[in-house]
Amino acid sequence: MATSLESTESRDLPALDRQRSSTVPARTPVSRSIWRCASLVAALGLWQIATQYKVSLGFVTMANVPAPTEVALAFWRLLHSPKLPMHLFASIMRVLVGFSAATIVGIGLGLAIGRYRAFEDTVLPSLEVLRPIPAVAWIPLAILMFPSSEMSMMFITFIGALFPILLNTVHGVEGVDPRLVATARSLGTGGLSLFSEVILPGAAPAILTGLSIGMGTAWFCLITAEMIAGQYGIGYFTWESYSLQNYADIVVGMLLIGALGMGSSVLVKRLGLMLMPWYRLSEARR
User: Fold this and answer.
1) DSSP 3-state assignment of 61?
2) Most confidently predicted of 47-56, 93-102, 241-250
3) Residue 233: left if φ>0, alpha if ψ -120 to 50, beta else—which one?
4) Mind listing the domains of the chain with CATH numbers?
5) CA–CA gap between residue 199 and residue 205 (Å, rounded)
């Protein structure tokens, strides 16, 4: 009798969970956008209060940090400066070239490493040795290898974006269901058709994740390179502002870097989802 009661209760638990979840109001896209904007305004308010009252916590102080109002004025001055288009164009072009090269090389190597063990045993050990090396350590060698500082900075962005794309592609290929591959082979699919029709679509979500991470890493590495070897770019502008003690411009440069990195990562993700209609449908069914 007790067993039958327990089984009845266990069967009713999912129904109770659905009933409870249905009583929680779901947020609409408009309400989520309002909530996110409110959180951003609250963060700016806390920043203003901390700088206005020179809050000090012992190990960190806001006495010398510029207030949001000062940063806004500095940003307004930069918008009217003729150097802003040159800084933006230089940084965006370096990221585009390095990221595009990393996409081609990373996806190509990742597909081969994930699919062929002989290729993995030959190439992957060397790449794993190079992967933990930070971008800053590559800068002196890049300056020696390339005839111009422009090429060396593009190489730094390439290195930064390569490994996230490569590793996510490898994991995506290894995660493809072997039954799909066996079924495709039994139907006569092989060679490049197997890659284009089975392996690549199956690994596409992981590749998209690697591209989004790689874009953010490319911006991080580029800014580091521009601070050392650049003459134009957002990283050079930020470092020059520090040298000239224009502290508000430092924050402007940081915010520009964050906005460009976030915007480009979102763009990569949106483009990837447009190219993967089957992935969008599977997410909508969940």
Assistant:
1) strand
2) 93-102
3) left
4) 68-285 (1.10.3720.10)
5) 11
- Residue 257 in contact with residue 221, Cβ under 8 Å? no
Amino acid (1-letter code) at residue 20: R
Report the mean per-residue pLDDT for the chain.
Answer: 84
State pTM to two decimals. Answer: 0.81
Distance of alpha carbon 209 from alpha carbon 105, whole angstroms: 16
pLDDT, tens digit, 9 for 90 and up, residues 253-264: 999 999 999 999
Q: What average pLDDT does this structure show over 171-189?
A: 85
- Dihedral sign, CA of 213, 215, 219, 222? positive
Enumerate the H helices of the chain as residue ranges: 2-23, 29-52, 68-79, 83-115, 117-130, 135-145, 149-174, 178-186, 192-194, 200-229, 234-243, 247-274, 277-285
Can you give the pLDDT at residue 22?
46
**AA identity, residue 168:** N
